[in-house]
Fold this sequence. Notes:
Largest sheet of chain A: 2 strands, antiparallel
Radius of gyration of chain B: 20 Å
Number of helices of chain A: 18
Radius of gyration of chain A: 24 Å
Oligomer: heterodimer
Distance between the termini of chain B: 34 Å
Number of strands of chain B: 0
Structural class of chain A: mainly alpha
Largest interface: A-B, 63 and 44 residues
Mean pLDDT of chain B: 85
Distance between the termini of chain A: 34 Å
Strand content of chain B: under 5%
Helix content of chain A: 55-70%
Amino acid sequence: MAVAHGAAHEEHKLGFIQRYVFSQDHKIIGIQYMMTSLFMAAVGGVLAMLIRMELGWPGARWGLARLLFPGGFTPDGVLKPDFYLAVVTMHGSIMIFFVLTTALSGGFGNFLIPLTIGARDMAFPFINMLSYWLYPPAIVVLLASFFVAGGAPNAGWTAYPPLSALRNAAPGSGLGQTLWLVSLAILIVSFLFGSLNYITTVLQLRTRGMSMGRMPLVTWAQFTTAILMLLAFPVLFAAVVMLLFDRHLGTSFFVPSGLVVGGQLVTHQGGNPLLWQHLFWFLGHPEVYVLILPPMGIVSEILAVHGRKPIFGYKAMVASICAIAFLSFLVWGHHMFTSGMNPLVGTAFMVTTLAIAIPSAVKTFNWVATLWRARIHFTPAMLFAIGFVSLFVTGGLTGIFLGSPAVDVYFQDTFFVVAHFHFVMASAALFGLFGGLYHWFPKMFGRMMNERLGKLHFWLTFVGIYATFFPMHFLGMAGEPRRYYSPQMYDFLRGLAGLNMFVSLAAFGLGLAQLIFAYNFVSSLFRGPKAERNPWHANTLEWQTESPPPHGNWGATLPTVHRWPYDYSVPGAQDDFIPQTVPAAAVPVAGGALDDAIQGPAGDEPPAGSERT
Amino acid sequence: MPAPTRTLERPPGVQEPGGPATGGQGPRGSGGGEEAASPATTPARIAVWLLVGAITALFAAFTSTYLVRRGETDWQVGPLPPVLWLTTALILASSIALQQARRHGRRGEMVGLHTWLVVTTLLGLAFLAGQLLAWRQLATTGIYLATNPHSSFFYLLTGAHGLHLTGGIGALLYAVRRAPAAETASAALDVTDPVATYWHFLTGLWIYLFVILFAL
Lengths: 613, 216
């Protein structure tokens, strides 16, 4: 009872600022992360439209866009080359670090981890608040680069030196690049605070009966992602610090001797730009799994709930999450096959890269097997989850091409690569994000989203994604390089103008379709029908409390967990779902795939040593 | 310094605050801990190991770059500022002092705990002063950050270590204030142990940096 009093008391005591702005409540922080990320998604999306404007109609005049970005266009409305590079750089940086990472880990991670394990909050609520409140300053610093002399950085989201290291290498290599680096450093500290919290919370604050083997897959994915972030981002932080030293303190970590820029010999000497590539991709590759593991967890959850079937192969799912996370640290070299790497090393990286296909295939097989003969409810969340599987397979298959050094030498830096990662990482992660939002919106805001608009949004987005990114494979095969201001400058690419226009038109359609989501999201926030506790009839703990959950999540007593999270359509049971809180005595825990060692005995206490990861 | 967990601030014996809840295996296991024989796993004890993991990754990145760079033909190791021998001794002594503090803490001797924590803090501050002196010594001989690759790494690595150590001083000051005021030996160790883990890690890190900067 003391808890209920304490929680209620605290809720009354806190003013608006403490409750909704500088909140230490994980749910508010999760929603803050989500809203800020969605805002950044809009920014990144507008930049994508600018890219497609230029590539579809190189050198065309855009009077209206000039009003939006006065510095980026010539007086007669032509997009400037250096602004194009700045837009490409910022689109990538924003979407990867400031949208997908923050929405999927910051948003869903914060909201779901304590709720799915039966905790009242994170282990360190104050540090959690700090984690969020480092994010807006990072955004301000990043976006400020558009407004400084030289504009935003031109070096791409990978910021390869010397372009990113020498202040006069390109217009955006000046203050804009510095702001980019500082912004990333701030964001990395934010991620560090977040992942410290996630891991500690999962290890320490699970409620009675919630053994690791009974955690929902969405929580497993968040937990593993946090470990990845904790170990990978510091490496980028080190690289960022060294690059800032090179730029401002005269060191030469990454700048080689004998460079001539603008007709002048550079004073730096003895550095090695490849070192940056190694450090960057040592983060960069785990980062793509930071983006894709949480959606994998989300999708596993949605397929089971909206398919009314236990997830197929729970143990294999957990094992493959861990295997993917482990292997992701061993594959960074496949981004550098064309850097003069020893072919033997390249072959080693090929082997580790292709090995990731195994746990990925296990997951895909299990998703498909979960859908097999399921009673599928085609809700928007379910549609996006199925769409995720499709995009992941399409993008994953081209990954096998690119993982082979001999093929990659041809495809490196062409639109084939752009197509590959937009399917497997960007669009798939985006589908995970949308699916998760449609699924957990009732829990987050206590209201239902409009299903018809959600389905319309799905179909337009699904078709739009394939129409936009699938033709890029052909552009890449024909040799169109990525990041070029105008592909039409080469004779051999002129024949691709029509295809580029098609891609651009599809991209505009895809962009417009997102307005449906924006409208649905905002109008449902205020006018959506009230959500009940458990509108999807789901088993996991977050659905067993109010929508939205109160401060402290659970009222007077913490929930007790008696079973795994996927007891759906258990033969002989009264309902087609059995929440984790239902004692085994009331309805027996279903057998089959779930009756195994990792789940432990049906007792209420977690099995000894269950903290193994 | 980062704020402590609410769990740690809770007086022992009080099980259910309005703050973060603790689940089945939570720190509650030691909540009323009268005996300090087997320290409980508190969130702070876990988090400090995670922090150590992240900082290890950071320095692994710095020093792997260093190890690649020193393989080049133009590599030259700069002079070793003599004061570094002294600072190495100081940081080793600080770790020993911290162990003394923990030993007193385990027995519930709060005065001894307090004294040795203060000694550790002072040794830590002396180490930092010595590192700054080393920088001054190098600078007076004309070796600056951008002078050569070795000097760049020297200032970078010692600077990064020093910044982390400054955080450690903050944590020690927190422990000086909080740990001896705890009601039980176990509660005192709940504060001291995570700080000690972090501090010992920084001692080990310094030895590692010292070796790869000058002995390799």
